[in-house]
Specification:
Blueprint (H helix, E strand, L loop, with lengths): L7 E2 L4 E6 L2 E6 L1 H7 L2 E5 L6 E2 L4 E7 L3 E5 L4 E6 L2 H4 L3 H4 L8 E5 L11 H8 L2
Antiparallel strand pairs: 1-2, 2-3, 3-9, 4-6, 5-8, 6-7, 8-9
Length: 126
């Protein structure tokens, strides 16, 4: 299981990379392994401002569909369009090419509510 040290995490198994006032968001290695083979990622909220913990999309695996929850309030600037034709990138490279959205944070200080890697690892039992 991979837990990059330079990221922040949520209890809903999303990861966040902060770059200035932008947050790049995806699901963790733990989440993708629990879901299994990802077959579809849907995000219809580009251009919308979403509250923290609100649903911003869904990820569909062979056996289940799971909601994606916003880790921080903000405007969704971009969806990773590579996932439309290659949703399996979430499985093969969840922290790289499998990212899901870029978000302009409403309040960058909200990042303090996210989990550092040690707390996230404890949450997952690793």
């Amino acid at each position: 299981m991979n837990f990059p040290e330079d990221l922040l995490y949520t209890k809903d198994h999303e990861w966040v990379r902060i770059e200035g006032d932008t947050a790049i968001v995806g699901i963790t290695d733990f989440a993708q392994s629990e879901l299994g083979d990802i077959v579809f990622v849907e995000v219809n909220t580009v251009g919308e401002t979403i509250d923290a913990e609100a649903v911003f999309g869904t990820v569909e695996a062979v056996k289940t569909v799971s909601d994606l929850f916003m880790p921080l309030a903000g405007e969704i600037l971009e969806f990773n369009e590579a996932l439309e034709s290659n949703p399996e990138l979430v499985n093969s490279d969840p922290f790289g090419e499998g990212w899901m959205v870029k978000v302009k944070m409403s309040n960058p200080s909200d990042a303090s509510s996210l989990l550092p890697v040690a707390e996230y690892k404890a949450l997952t039992g690793n």
